Amino acid sequence: MFWCEYPRDVIQVHGPDAASYLQSQLSQDLRPVAVGDSVWSMVLQPTGKVDVLLRVFRTGDETFVLDTDAGYGDELIARLNRFKIRVKVDITILDWTCIAVRGDVQPPEGAVVAWGDGYDLLGPAPLPPEGVEHGDAAQLLAARVDAVWPQMGTEIVPGETIPAETGITDVAVSYTKGCYPGQELVERMDSRGAAPPRRLQRVVSASGEATLAYVKRGAQ
Q1: According to the 3-state scheme, what is the secondary structure of the chain?
Q2: Of 100, 164, 206, 209, which is most buried, counting CB atoms within 10 Å of its CB?
Q3: What is the model's pTM?
Q4: Count of alpha carbons within 13 Å of 93, Cβ hemisphere only?
């Protein structure tokens, strides 16, 4: 078990129309998300390609905090503003940080959902858990590879990657919510049981090094 800093870009979406607006834009169903809960989601292009993979943390009745991989906050803001027409919503950047705690451990109150075993702490100045070893970026990468979790800019290329390829649609996509940009492709592949031409997998080299790579359908 370890903890380490997890570079993230964080924004806040606030206003009387925040819930309904995000519901109309994100791949995840936000209706069951209560204050204090968090879920993974995506914003897609109308073609169904991924724009940004993100996490949604509801901090109030009219307030949501969205975080994504470092370097993609501006892209997330631009994508949300693109469709923000006549809605009472303010989108602002937050100077928040994230701490990743990985291992077989129960999340404390206030933690947000994470990939793999463990939890994340997201806030203005989150404190690392006591008695847990301070890890590093290499350990976090190894944990991400083991969890087969894609990252923006590496496994997810904005405007190119489709959700089904990532292997995380079971936690980032709802197939029962209403319309949102890009839904048609996602729903069509699901309803037809269509397998993507490639899928993200954990691959071990001859030297024993584990990495993430897209493997074409039918490849060994």
Answers
A1: CEEEECCEEEEEEECCCHHHHHHHHECCCCCCCCCCCEEEEEEECCCCCEEEEEEEEEEECCEEEEEEECCCHHHHHHHHHHCCCCCCCEEEEECCEEEEEECCCCCCCCCECCCCCEEEEEECCCCCCCCCEECCHHHHHHHHHHHCCCCECCCECCCCCCHHHHCCHHHHCCCCCCCCCCHHHHHHHHHCCCCCCEEEEEEECCCCCEEEEEEECCCC
A2: 100
A3: 0.94
A4: 12
Average pLDDT over every residue of 112-119: 97
Q: Which residue has the tokens 């691959």?
A: 203
Report the C-alpha gap between 114 and 126 in whole angstroms. 15
Strand partners, 86: none
Domains of the chain: 2-216 (3.30.1360.120)
Cα torsion through 23, 25, 27, 28, rounded to 10 = -20
For residue 153, the Cα-to-chain-centroid distance in whole angstroms is 13
Token couple for 199: 């899928």
pLDDT of res. 220: 54
